[in-house]
Amino acid sequence: MAKEARMKHLKPLYILIAVLALATPYLAKDKIIESKWTPAALQIDGKIAEWADDVRETQKSEQVSYAFKNDAEFLFVLFVFNESKTVSSINQTGMTFWVNTEGKEKKIYGLKFYPKTLTGEQLVKEMEAKGEMVADDKKAEIIKSKAPFRVFASDAINKKGEIIPHPGKGIATFRTGQVNKDLVYEFVIPLALFSDPTTQTPFDPAKPFKLGFNWGGMTEEMKKAQAAEIGDRGAQARAGGGGESGGIEGEIRGDLQSMRRMAQRVKEYDFWIDLKLAAKQ
C-alpha cells in the first residue's frame, strides 16, 4: 500500500517531466536572436573588425556563423562561411533574405543580394533609376570607362523570385571578404525595406519577425552549361561509333552520376531564425 501511495504521488511529477521533455525541442526552435544596438553606422567592407567583440550565433548544419546590429534606420548583418567545410555556389547565386512578419517560415517577400557586372552606361542608368544624384562630369567619366564595373546589387522579390518594386526609401547592399579560409559577407539593409510590398504589411521594428536565408544551388547558367556538355558528349559518342545500346546506356549512367556530383557540390542552403531588433539605448 505504501508503494502504491508513493507511486500515486510521483505520477504527476512523471507527467510534468514528460511534458517538459516534449516541449524542449519547440522551445529551442523558437529561440529569438537579438540584434545589438550600434550608436554609429557600420562600414560595409566585408571585414569583421567591427564585429570582433560580438558573440556570433552558429548554424552547424550549414557551417556558418552570423550576428546582427542595428540603429534606428538600418540593420547590419554579418555572415561568416566556413569554406573549408562548406562549398557552395553563393558567389553565383547570391543570398536571399526572406522576411515574414506573421511569424511563419513561409517565403512571401524577400531581398535578394547578388553581384553583377555592368558597363559604364548601364551603371549610370541604374544609379539614376534608384534616385542617386551623380554629377555630370562623374557620369561622363563612368560612361567613358572601358573597364566593367562590379556592382553589389539587391532587389525586392516575390515568392516566385520575380523582381518587384518597393516603395521604401534606401538601398540595401553588401560586401564580401576573406578571413583565413572563411568567406565573409557583410550586409546593410534600411529598415524601411522590411515592409512587405506584396501585402502592404507595415514593418514594426519593436516586434520579433521571421527571417529566412537562402543561397547556393544550381543556377540557370550552370544547368544550361551542364545540359550542353552532356549533349556534346552524346554527339561525340555517336559520331565515334558509340551508338551501341550498351555504349549509350553507359553514357547516360555517366551523365546522371555527373549531375548528382554537381548537385552535391553546389548544395542549396536554407534556414530560418526569429530576430528581434534592439531598441535605442
Can you describe this structure?
This protein is of the alpha+beta class and 281 residues long. The protein has 2 domains: 28-217 and 268-276, Immunoglobulin-like, CATH 2.60.40; 222-260. It is built from 6 helices and 12 strands. It has helices spanning 2-29, 90-93, 120-129, 136-144, 220-239, 245-265, and strands spanning 32-34, 36-37, 57-59, 64-70, 74-82, 95-100, 109-118, 149-158, 173-179, 182-190, 209-216, 268-276. It has a 6-stranded mixed sheet with strand order 1-12-11-6-7-8. Strand 9 and strand 10 (182-190) form a beta hairpin. Helix 3 runs antiparallel to helix 4 (136-144) and helix 5 packs antiparallel against helix 6 (245-265). It is globular, with a radius of gyration of 25 Å. The model is unreliable at 13-28 (pLDDT under 50).
Largest sheet: 6 strands, mixed
Name the structural class.
alpha+beta
- What separation lies between the terminal Cα atoms? 62 Å
How many helical elements? 6
Overall body shape: globular
Low-confidence stretches: 13-28
Number of domains: 2
Q: What's the mean pLDDT score? A: 81
- Written as H for each helix and E for each strand, in order along the chain, the element string is HEEEEEHEEHHEEEEHHE
The spatial strand order of the largest sheet comes to 1-12-11-6-7-8
In short:
With 281 residues, the chain is of the alpha+beta class. The chain is built from six helices and twelve strands.
